[in-house]
Amino acid sequence: MEAFLEDVTPSISFPTTHSARNDLLVQIHKVAAAYRGKSGKIVREMIALGQLDPTVIQSFVEGYLEPRRLAAKEVLIRGINNNEFSKRINIEVVVDSLYGPIFHRMLTKHAPIDDCFVDEYVSLILNAIAVDKA
Fold first, then answer.
1. What is the DSSP string of 25-87?
2. Percent of the chain with pLDDT over 70
């Protein structure tokens, strides 16, 4: 787990710009790219092993998943504070919505995790939570 975290963490970090929306999109593209390769294989293996060994899934959730979710929540809160996103969103649901499709495709391999897919579903979610400027 430590070797995986050391390898993948820098490659999927969030940028910090004037736009929380852009930062989310850029970071989710980084995650998608990582999960198309060796990191995705490792994540799949950890999830599979975790189904048989509760300590593996606990280590994965606590060491990898929770810190990434916290970082995403911080960007969403920044977007709320900057009036990019609605104050009424359920941040937990939004985080699941932003990253769930990648996990789904990574685990089932029914379709690629390509850039077009990421752009389309992330835009759909971010448009749904955007503050109506009209």
1. HHHHHHHHHHHTTHHHHHHHHHHHHHHH-HHHHHHHIIIIIHHHHHHHHHHHHHHHHTTSB-T
2. 96
From 3.40.47.10, 1.20.1600.10, 3.20.80.10, 1.10.357.10, which CATH number describes the 2-129 domain? 1.10.357.10
CB atoms within 10 A of CB 101: 21
Contact status, residue 98 vs residue 68, Cβ threshold 8 Å: no
> Do 1 and 55 touch, CB atoms closer than 8 A?
no
Q: Please give the C-alpha separations between residue 74 and each of 60, 113, 124, in angstroms, as whole numbers.
A: 20, 25, 20
| pTM for this prediction | 0.91
- Per-residue confidence band for 134, with pLDDT thresholds at 50, 70 and 90: low
Delimit the domains of the chain by residue range. Answer: 2-129
Q: Please state, in angstroms and as integers, the Cα–Cα distance from residue 16 to each residue in 13, 75, 76, 92, following that order.
A: 10, 9, 12, 21
C-alpha–C-alpha distance, residues 18 and 16, integer Å:
7
Residue 47 scores a pLDDT above 90: yes
- Phi/psi for 10 (5° steps) reads -65, -30
